[in-house]
Amino acid sequence: MGLHGVQMEGDDDHGEPQKFNKYACGCCIVASMISIIFGYDTGVMSGAMIFIKEELKIGDVKVEVLAGILNICALVGSLMAGRTSDYIGRRYTITLSSVIFLVGAVLMGWAPNYAVLLAGRCTAGIGVGFALMIAPVYSAEIASSKSRGFLTSLPELCISIGILLGYVSNYFFGKLTLKLGWRLMLGIAAIPSFVLAFGILKMPESPRWLVWQGRLGEAKKILQQVCNSEEEAEKRFRDIKKAAGYDENCEADVVEPLKSSNGGQGVWKELLLRPRPAVRWILIAAIGIHFFEHAVGVEAVVLYGPRIFKKAGIKGKDKLLLATIGIGVTKTMFILVATFLLDKVGRRKLLLISTSGVIVALTTLGFSLTMVENVEHQILWALILSIVATYTFLAFFSIGIAPITWVYSSEIFPLKLRAQGMAIGVAVNRLMNATISITFLSLSEAITIGGAFFMFAGISVMAWWFFFFLLPETKGKSLEEMETLFTRGRGGGRIKNNGGVEIQQRNDL
């Protein structure tokens, strides 16, 4: 057992007790810290908008733009981050993300008017795009196959922690003067951004990126730190070299990088123009899971929670903000549970259970809000049902769809295509997030707020079928095996109905 290994439940492929590498975990935790800042920026805006609207005298359209512009800019940032991380490495890309966040937070905290506030939000959005792409990719490339689900879900857990901190910040800073309160809510995020920008430099680079660049000696040393034994490190090293296109028996410390590893050249052709059948399936799976994560309406609840609770019948700013803190607590608690289930239950089963619960919760929320809207007096049972349905939706969403979106998409792409493939997924993710953020208020006016959630329930049914037919189980597979996995069990372009079970059985052998 390596110096960093501690025993966990389960067995490895040779019947040995499964180990958990504390050094690899530490690297992933530090990399995931950038996601706390993003989560905070998302959560704090839900309450800050109440005060911003009051001081700056802006209407709902400008509020929607302020809420959604971060994700439009994040779409651009994620596409930039894919090529950037291939060129300068995963670690320096996280540092760059922190610096961009820092600038955005300072602008928002200073903001004397709406234009500067919007500029700060846009800048922070670029940082969001970088962070969302790079943190799961780095974690996936550091982790072993046995703990990859846990470690790669840490960024999503950190987002939830950040959202919760944002809600708490709303509650306490909301007691300050109108002019100072919301500026402190937004500007205080500059402090952790500054600390992380330097702290991240103490981390090792991704060994897979180093191999891709021909820096084999450095990659091997890092693998010896993040693995529990020399044998495990050597096996992962050989697999990575082979996947990168080098001779797996090569012992040189430095070799000439392959032409394809020069900043990600040729990747777009292999991803979009002439993809292999397995790569096409992988890309469809990644785009689909990112599309449905936000198409089911989670952003409507996270960002506009106070408005939903107000519509349900809760009055007063303090009560609204306290009820919204409950959203953050629920989301964080259930994502924490999910991190421990991903490597035991598996991605596919947890995803289908999660989506089933989301369908029921959204249908219930649509019904209860419709009842509230169609009566003149307050109905206590409908108010209670609305709150319970909201928290139930977040619980089911957070135990499956939320973390698995990032775990799954970061682990299925081949090494050469991983960063830019993930960037495409994140771009779709941010586009859907922005769409929901910008249109929810207008949508709820057009078809009622209850009707909006009935629509999200219908989309969730489509999501369930997509996950069932197109997403095979990846639990226990190494990153180098993923392309083979997406070549199996095909029938007319779909996974056979029992394909997920068959693959799971092979994983358990």
TrEMBL record:
Membrane topology: Multi-pass membrane protein
Pfam families (alphabetical): Sugar_tr
Record-level Gene Ontology MF annotations: carbohydrate:proton symporter activity
Domain (Major facilitator superfamily (MFS) profile): residue spans on this chain: 27-475
Compartments where found: Membrane
Keywords: Membrane, Sugar transport, Symport, Transmembrane, Transmembrane helix, Transport
GO cellular component: membrane
Top-level taxon: Eukaryota
Transmembrane segments: 20-40, 65-82, 94-112, 118-138, 150-168, 180-201, 281-305, 320-343, 350-372, 378-409, 421-443, 449-471
PANTHER family assigned to the protein according to its UniProt record, in alphabetical order: PROTON MYO-INOSITOL COTRANSPORTER (PTHR48020), SUGAR TRANSPORTER (PTHR48020:SF49)
Listed name of the protein: Major facilitator superfamily (MFS) profile domain-containing protein
Provenance organism: Acer negundo (Box elder)
Taxonomic lineage from the root: Eukaryota, Viridiplantae, Streptophyta, Embryophyta, Tracheophyta
